[in-house]
């Protein structure tokens, strides 16, 4: 390693030491009980609630995946996705947060999402709980793998080391940290990481604009590429297949692009459908349940929205800046996701670049620990204790939880072994899975009294299954069928919930009483 690389490594080690300190600090409290471990005893303040929710939500995708999309094909895809996410964030905080916080307490003090759904419908046989837990295990394992890919790409790019070795080391660190501190450590470190992420993005975009010769120069360069800076068009890199990978062609030191593609209303609706995913995103919904006071959610919403809008806008612009400064540096879709790293290491002193790189690490840790913790709780708390061993002690649940963490991490590592994996594509599939499985039933559970247990089961199964069916089969037909799988799966889930609920016996008087009490703002019976 040369001197600059060593400085980058030192800065990142300092950051990682701070993260470990937070985990150790909260470890004792986290291990008092499963409620403390999984939900932090409902003690989060408004700032930690907001910032940890967004940091765990955005992950390394914000610093690598989104700029990579903008770098590769221009503004439209990245911008409409960001707009959908911003709108979804706002409405999730506005209409879901307070009622879920209240309802989760009313529903027998539920501390996990599967537990809330099960208690909401007062089910004796834990079918909803089991289905919810299984889908969480599936999609969060995929999600965690995207974070491991980020770790591998980061260290392989920075230090020229083997991708697979670096990816596995990153996964081991995340695993140990998550097992140690639980939800409180995760939320506290996520708060810090949200700050690091937005600072890192802001620093890079400012320095990038200066290096490029100003905003005008960046825009002029983007306008020279057909469709690159359009909201209703999209750039089309000219590619050829090399060893199974599509590589952009270069002529006279410039990347080649074909004619601009069309970006119609159906594509826009499909892309903005990313916003629907928020209603079913466990790592965000848990923060609503964990805040100490319902009244503090309004302040959290404002904090979250400011962070989200700034971060998304800056991340997109970084990709556009990158196309001017490093037009032929990244010639594959997977490589394009390294543009943030390239900008940071080329424009900052090594020690500062290290702290900026810690922003990527921050994003990755803040998400992967959330994913693994929620997935482990889904099995240990909801399947092991909820179905198989109802008299299991807290210690047994915690032991099973940590064993589950290990197994999930191993599966996530296996999925992430391919270094050509595109982070954006992995995240988009898992996002669709959660959005379609849990989003509709969350909204109907909170706002439609007539929703039945059978309707809830039908909605989750149809939504989750349609994500796979649409992605793997229907989308291959192309044309109008090539839309993002979340949109049709979300609609199908809603339809099943309504129809099945209407043709089955209405909820019991006790369930309706719970609903009316929560609607009226009461928690106690």
Query: Strand pairing plus helix content: what structural class?
Result: mainly alpha
Helix content: over 70%
Number of E strands: 6
Give the terminus-to-terminus CA distance.
65 Å
Radius of gyration, in angstroms, nearest whole number: 23 Å
Strand order of the largest sheet: 1-6
Oligomer: single chain
CATH level-3 fold name: Sodium/glucose cotransporter
* Mean model confidence by pLDDT: 87
* CATH architectural designation: Up-down Bundle
Output the CATH homologous superfamily.
Sodium/glucose cotransporter
The count of helical stretches stands at: 18
Stretches where pLDDT is under 50 for at least 5 consecutive residues are none
Describe the structure.
- There is one protein chain.
- The chain has one domain: Sodium/glucose cotransporter (Up-down Bundle).
- Helix content is 73%, strand content 3%.
- The chain contains 18 helices and six strands.
- The strands form three sheets. Strands 1-6 form a two-stranded antiparallel sheet.
- A hairpin with a 2-residue loop joins strand 4 and strand 5.
- The longest helix is centred in the middle third of the chain and has 50 residues, at 163-212.
- It is globular and about 75 Å long.
- The relative contact order is 0.18.
- The model has no long low-confidence stretch (mean pLDDT 87).
């Amino acid at each position: 390693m040369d001197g600059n690389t060593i400085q980058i490594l030192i800065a990142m080690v300092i950051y990682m030491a701070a993260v470990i300190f937070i985990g150790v600090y909260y470890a004792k409290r986290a291990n008092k009980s499963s409620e403390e471990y999984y939900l932090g005893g409902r003690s989060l303040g408004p700032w930690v609630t907001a910032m940890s929710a967004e940091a765990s939500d955005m992950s390394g995708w914000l610093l690598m995946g989104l700029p990579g999309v903008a770098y590769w094909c221009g503004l439209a895809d990245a911008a409409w996705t960001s707009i959908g996410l911003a709108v979804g964030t706002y409405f999730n905080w506005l209409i879901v947060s307070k009622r879920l916080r209240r309802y989760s307490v009313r529903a027998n003090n539920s501390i996990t999402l599967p537990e809330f759904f099960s208690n909401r419908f007062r089910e004796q046989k834990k079918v909803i709980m089991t289905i919810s837990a299984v889908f969480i295990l599936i999609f969060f394992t995929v999600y965690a793998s995207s974070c491991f890919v980020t770790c591998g790409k980061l260290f392989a790019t920075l230090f020229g080391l083997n991708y697979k070795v670096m990816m596995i080391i990153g996964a081991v660190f995340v695993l140990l940290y998550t097992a140690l501190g639980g939800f409180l450590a995760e939320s506290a470190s996520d708060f810090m990481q949200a700050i690091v992420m937005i600072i890192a993005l802001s620093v890079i975009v400012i320095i990038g604009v200066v290096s490029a010769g100003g905003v005008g120069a960046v825009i002029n360069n983007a306008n020279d590429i057909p469709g690159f800076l359009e909201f209703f068009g999209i750039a089309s890199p000219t590619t050829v297949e090399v060893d199974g990978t599509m590589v952009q062609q270069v002529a006279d030191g410039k990347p080649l692009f074909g004619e601009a593609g069309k970006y119609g209303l159906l594509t826009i609706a499909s892309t903005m459908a990313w916003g629907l995913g928020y209603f079913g995103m466990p790592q965000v919904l848990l923060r609503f349940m964990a805040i100490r006071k319902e009244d503090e959610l309004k302040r959290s919403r404002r904090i979250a929205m400011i962070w989200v809008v700034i971060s998304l806008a800056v991340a997109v612009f970084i990709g556009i800046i990158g196309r001017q400064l490093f037009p032929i540096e990244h010639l594959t879709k997977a490589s394009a996701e390294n543009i943030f790293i390239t900008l940071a290491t080329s424009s900052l002193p090594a020690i500062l670049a290290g702290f900026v790189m810690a922003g990527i690490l921050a994003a990755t840790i803040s998400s992967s620990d959330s994913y693994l913790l929620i997935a482990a709780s889904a099995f240990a708390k909801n399947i092991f204790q909820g179905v198989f061993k109802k008299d299991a002690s807290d210690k047994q649940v915690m032991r099973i939880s940590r064993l589950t963490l290990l197994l999930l991490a191993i599966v996530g590592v296996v999925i992430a072994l391919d270094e050509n994996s595109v982070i954006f594509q992995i995240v988009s599939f898992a996002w669709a899975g959660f959005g379609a499985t849990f989003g509709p039933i969350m909204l109907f559970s909170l706002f439609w009294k007539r929703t039945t247990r059978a309707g809830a089961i039908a909605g989750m199964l149809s939504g989750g299954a349609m994500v796979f069916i649409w992605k793997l089969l229907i989308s291959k037909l192309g044309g109008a069928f090539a839309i993002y799988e979340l949109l049709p799966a979300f609609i199908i889930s809603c339809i099943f919930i309504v129809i099945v609920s209407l043709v089955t016996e209405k909820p019991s008087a006790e369930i309706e009483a719970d609903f009316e009490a929560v609607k009226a703002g009461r928690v106690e019976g």
